[in-house]
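hey so i finally got around to running the thing on that chain from the lab meeting. sorry it took forever, my laptop kept dying and i had to restart like 3 times. anyway pasting the input first so we r on the same page abt which one it is
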Amino acid sequence: MKNKIFITFLILFCTQILLAQKIEIKPYLQDAEPTSIKIMWQTDFDEESIVYWGTKKNRLKNKVIGTSFDINFTEKRVHEVAITGLTRFTTYFYKVQTGKAVSKVYQFKTPPFAGESKKINLVAMSDMQNDWQYPTKFKEVVEEGILPYFDKNFEGNISDNLAMVVIPGDLVVTGTTFNQWEEHFFKQSEKLFSQVPVYPVPGNHERNSDYFFKYFSLPKNGSPEYAEHWWFKDYANTRIIGLDSNDGYRDIKQQLIWLKELLAKTAKNDTIDFVFAQLHHPHKSELWIPGEEDFSGKVVKLLENFTKESNKPSLHFFGHTHGYSRGQSKEHKHLWVNVASAGGAIDNWGEFEGRDYDEFTVTQDEYGFVLATINPDKENPSFTLKRISRGNNIEFRNNELRDSITVFKKTIQPNTPVLVDFGKEPQPIYKVVLKANSFKSDKKDAFHGASNWQVSTTKDFSKIIYNSWKQHENWYYKENRQKDDDLSDEILDRKLNNYTTYYVRVRYRDQFLNWSNWSVVRAFKTIK
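ok and heres what got predicted. didnt touch it at all, straight out
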């Protein structure tokens, strides 16, 4: 009799275990607002979607019930719960429950209101799609890169110091393959996205899969008929814009119309100082020319025009090319930043067709992430980008700072350069040397970042025959091609005409992207 009772109890106990729900994808944060946030997770079955939350870790006295939906025509469910009535810029704790499955307690911090003077950090990284040779590289970037970097350089929990993570595409190898989302993306990033909201845009590897749009609850403020393909999110004084540069969407005129209209409104919005856009494909790529897309060039043009008209600096984050690049527009305070690779196989130097573009200052074939720190200083707001490197398969780097740039909203021009007079002596038709004085600026810590030399056959520079734009550094194919180059002189590397008058001018730029005025024009004549 006792044996029968024991066996019956054992069967019931085992049945309960077998029927108990399992959290397959741990909670992750979406669409954070000053007074609300969305929490999502996945279980093997059961529709129950409960979040317990509060301002104290051991007293989660608030309970919210959400919804769940089928993800792949099985019993698996994705759960979504919206918590409302929160206080801006406040830390909260939470846990989720589906049936008998209960998560551990996590925490998050609500954003400030748009326009508030709060210093914030965001991380940009992309192309973490799984590489079979290094299948846990994305996990390494998260758990040995981002998390310890913040532990070392900031006080408190990462949710106190990191506002959001943006991902310009290629989260998985094949977006239509269901298990890749759990195994390759969510499991490798669960320690980060349970505490910090993530905002991705699709890359070509997502293949416009329904899984992408089911797993993420992105802002629904883009064109209604293309919900979540393009959108924007305001955080303090910065507007984040997500775009879809993929085949089938980059040809839809409505996207660029929407962007142009949004930028026009942003230009008039006094609470926004900066615009950060993200899209997957590059306009130009030094490591992989075949990956370039004309659509991205149209986006860059709109952002440049916005910056010119509003005096608000902008940038675009992109991926597709598996490496890091940072450049800047010639005439605008606009940065071009390739934020890969966070896991995908690196596009090594020499492996594909590349090109040394004038816009780019640094290109490296490496893993890593980009940290953006936005300072809302009332006198002159600024943002700083830092490239934190994990090295590559040849040389490991342990969160090494490889590149950095700061851009200020207000322009403080460097002093106008002064050209050295050519005198009355005629110049040769080969390799004429142009020279100006040393760089000077009233801006603290400013140094000579770039020079733009122009030579024309007309005094009004309507017929320019030489136009040179050089940066203070140019890291291309593992070397600095600008090493030891004095930006205060230039050698004309072209043949000139005999017995001709030429006109010269130069302007200087500091490392903060501020141009000086053009110098006074000087003239010289050539002989045979």
